[in-house]
Design a protein that fits this description.
The protein is α/β, with parallel strands linked by helices. The protein folds into 2 domains: 159 residues, Rossmann fold (3-Layer(aba) Sandwich), CATH 3.40.50.300; 69 residues, no CATH class. Helices cover 36% and strands 24% of the residues. The protein has 8 helices and 10 strands. It has a 6-stranded mixed β-sheet, sandwiched between helices.
C-alpha cells in the first residue's frame, strides 16, 4: 500500500494556466475527495497523478517512486464505464490484467472473488447491454481492482447514476474500500458525496486551479447513509459550499 505525494504541480495549455503550484499528500490507505467549480483542473490533476499528462512544473510520487509516464501503481476509474459490449462481465473485468500481461490463469480465482466483492456474483456471463448503470460501474470498479493497484483514481464515477443508485454505490464503495484498503483520490461535484466518502476533502479554486482548502472529515467509520441527515454533516457541507462560493465570486463566476 502506497500513498500519493503531489508537489508544486503547475500546468498550462494553449489558453492559459490550468493548475498552479498544487501540493497535497494522500497517505497510504487514505480516502481523499476533490471538489471545486467546473474548469478548476480536477481531471487534469488526476491525469497528472496517473502519468497520463505531464505537469509543466512540480512532481508526483507514488510511494518513493517519481511518476514519469503511466503509473502502474494506479488504476483509473472514469465516469463512463467504457465496457466492451462484446465481452462478458468476467471478460471485461479481466481486461486490465490482459493489458498489463498479468497471468490470467493464476489470477482467475482472485478475479472471481473480486466480482463477488463488488456485488457481481452470478453476473459473470452477462453482457453490458444486460446491466443497469450501477452494475456497469461495478464492473468498472472490479476491472480497476483486478490489477491490484496501490492507488485508485476515480473521476466522478457515479455522476451518470440516478440519485438512489448513486447512494447505494457510495455505501458499496466504502465497504469495498474497507476490505481492500487502497489509497483513493476521488473527484466529485456532489458535496455530500465528497464528505460522506472521505477522510479529507480538498477544495479547489479555479483560473488557475489551486488548493483553496484542505478539510479533515471528523466522522467515524463505518458510516451509514443516515449520517447525511445529521446536523453536523450538513454544517460541514455548508462550510465547503461557502469556500466554493467564495472562489466562484472571486474568479468572476463559472
Amino acid at each position: 500500500m502506497k500513498g500519493v505525494s503531489v508537489r508544486g504541480i503547475s500546468k498550462s495549455f494553449g489558453n492559459g494556466a490550468v493548475l498552479q503550484n498544487v501540493s497535497f499528500n494522500a497517505e497510504a490507505g487514505e480516502f481523499v475527495t476533490i471538489v471545486g467549480p467546473s474548469g478548476c483542473g480536477k481531471t487534469t490533476l488526476l491525469r497528472i497523478i496517473d502519468g497520463l499528462e505531464e505537469g509543466d512544473f512540480g512532481e508526483v510520487r507514488i510511494g518513493d517512486r517519481k511518476v514519469g509516464g503511466p503509473a502502474r501503481e494506479c488504476a483509473f476509474v472514469f465516469q463512463a464505464d467504457s465496457l466492451m459490449p462484446w465481452r462478458t462481465v468476467f471478460d471485461n473485468a479481466k481486461l486490465g490484467m490482459e493489458l498489463r500481461k498479468q497471468d490470467l490463469a493464476s489470477n482467475k480465482d482472485r478475479l472471481q472473488e473480486l466480482l463477488q466483492l463488488v456485488g457481481l456474483g452470478g453476473y459473470e456471463k452477462y453482457y453490458p447491454r444486460q446491466l443497469s448503470g450501477g452494475l456497469r460501474q461495478r464492473v468498472n470498479l472490479a476491472r480497476a481492482l483486478a490489477v491490484d493497484p496501490d492507488v485508485l483514481l476515480m473521476d466522478e464515477p457515479f455522476a451518470a447514476l440516478d440519485a438512489q443508485t448513486r447512494e447505494i454505490m457510495q455505501k458499496e464503495l466504502l465497504r469495498i474500500w474497507a476490505t481492500q484498503q487502497k489509497t483513493v483520490v476521488f473527484i466529485t461535484h456532489q458535496l455530500d458525496e465528497a464528505v460522506y466518502l472521505a477522510d479529507r476533502v480538498l477544495v479547489m479554486g479555479r483560473k488557475p486551479g489551486v488548493i483553496a482548502d484542505d478539510i479533515s472529515v471528523p466522522f467515524d467509520r463505518p458510516r451509514e447513509l443516515s449520517l447525511k441527515r445529521t446536523k453536523e454533516f450538513g454544517q460541514l457541507v455548508e462550510r465547503i459550499w461557502g469556500t466554493i462560493e467564495t472562489v466562484i465570486r472571486e474568479t468572476g463566476g463559472i
